[in-house]
Amino acid sequence: DIRSAELTKYAANAFLATKITFMNEIAQMCERLGANVDMVRRGIGTDDRIGKRFLFAGIGYGGSCFPKDVQALAKSAKEVDYDFQILQAVMEVNEKQKKHLIPAISSYFNGNLSGKHFALWGLAFKPNTDDIREAPALELIDMLVQAGATVTAYDPEAMPNVQKVIGQKAAYANDPYSALQNADALIIATEWNVFRTPDFEILATKLKNKAIFDGRNLFEPEDMKEKGYHYVSIGRP
User: Which residues in the chain land under pLDDT 70?
Assistant: First the structure.
């Protein structure tokens, strides 16, 4: 029947958004307890009742489907006088998660981002798309600029779309390494494959500080420590 079919579509996306958000909450616990969210993910992912997909912690989900369907299901619940509390929490936590790196960035620069310049890798809400709807990167740019910083961004696909939305609020680079020029630190917002295996020696020569704030957990913390980087990721010691 039509009602069940419509609810099924909303329920599927809302459930996946909830799964992502739950892992982001677990990542918050990991940071406070000294645990590693990657180890937790692998552990619970071996349970076939849970599965391995949509268990990666990060700086929140975006796109058109998850935010829209979570909001639509929550709105439908209100219309039938039901308080769908889990969905309210999912939306609140996801908005908070988009801002998660900002305190760590601010702390590294002693609470003052005014005059700092950042390289930002990734603008799309996920890799292999130019879709920037509800993308965490846009929230990051907004907060950094409000704090008095400047940003040069690179994304393999999404830069034209971002320019249409925010114009010259950020500068745009032609490749990942060009974005690093004169940057005080690198921020990673999208897990494009091209960002997974950079030349860290080039990074070290271009960045003013060997500092990376990784919202997608692309690198191993131990490797980064050995390379001499100040490396902050999500839910990992």
Answer: none
